[in-house]
Amino acid sequence: MRNQQRMKRVSQDPEMLIRQWPSKVFAGLLLGAPLSLGVLGDLGLLLHVSRQLDQPEALLLRWVPGAVWVLSFCWALALRSGLRAWGGLLLGNALIWGLYGILYILRVAGWAAL
């Protein structure tokens, strides 16, 4: 009941929406870029893609960051508040870059032939 009243209040207050969108836009732009590069790094480590553009996987992998950045930007705009957009994208960055660190350490140490 309380959530319904709150949603009704937010949807009827255009000032609330005007105050929230700049925070969402900056969250999507500023935190979407490192998120997209982290996904690129994770996929590169998992697929054993070289830095040279001599493999078809490397050429296809170059398109991933743009798509991830656009999706993260749209996701940030779809959230209810700017604080949730910042928090969600920060959490996503922490998870993606944490996974990258683990994969990199395993690959350098030779413990996993991913």
List keywords for this structure.
single chain, 114 residues, mainly alpha, 0% strand, elongated
The SSE string, one letter per element, is HHHHH
Into how many domains do the coordinates divide? 1
Number of strands: 0
Helix content range of the residues, please? over 70%
Q: What's the main sheet like? A: none
Question: Could you tell me the radius of gyration in angstroms?
Answer: 18 Å
The average pLDDT value, as a whole number, equals: 86
The first-to-last residue Cα distance is 50 Å
- Could you say which structural class the secondary elements and strand pairing correspond to? mainly alpha
Q: Which outline best applies? A: elongated
Q: Beta-strand percentage?
A: under 5%
Regions with pLDDT < 50 over 5+ consecutive residues? none
Q: Report the total helices.
A: 5
Transmembrane segments: 21-40, 60-79, 86-106
Keywords: Membrane, Transmembrane, Transmembrane helix
